[in-house]
Amino acid sequence: MTAGSTLTNGTTAEHELAALQREHGRPLFALLLRLCDGDRQRAEDLVQETLVRAWQHPEALRADDFDSVRPWLMTVARRLAIDARRARQARPPEVGDAVLEHARVISDHAERAAAMLDVREAVKTLTPQHREVLVLVYFQEASVAEAAATLGIPPGTVKSRAYYALRALRRVLPGYAADLR
To answer: N or C: which end of the chain has fewer CB within 10 A?
Structure first.
């Protein structure tokens, strides 16, 4: 199709648009395929968008300043590819569902801080003996033997106090019961 042909309404416009696609579709696709880093689907979409722009602006195709519309089409295609690349770079990368299924869930800082406050308040409700064992075994990460030596009690007593302390915390913190196992 040359610059002198016109796109009119109805089937004539459709035939001329089809002729435009036949004449310039392959070179447009080749250009866009390079600009889209080999992504055939994106290149095909941009060829279609370029032809839609040609259909929307028939005055550009009728200009007497040039012999062929190919330079105009190539310029439109190149600009569309640049715009598409910029739009993709402005957004976070897309990920499939499979990636999300295996992603690690990270709780936010506010939830963690609120949970810490809840646990501190709950620990204050324990008896001093239970509290001492929990602090040593769970917060200071002492072994049962180390806690027994520090407190001067048998290891079995450390284990039983830890068990009953956790059981008491489960009653006070029902929403956290799964975390206290």
So the answer is: C
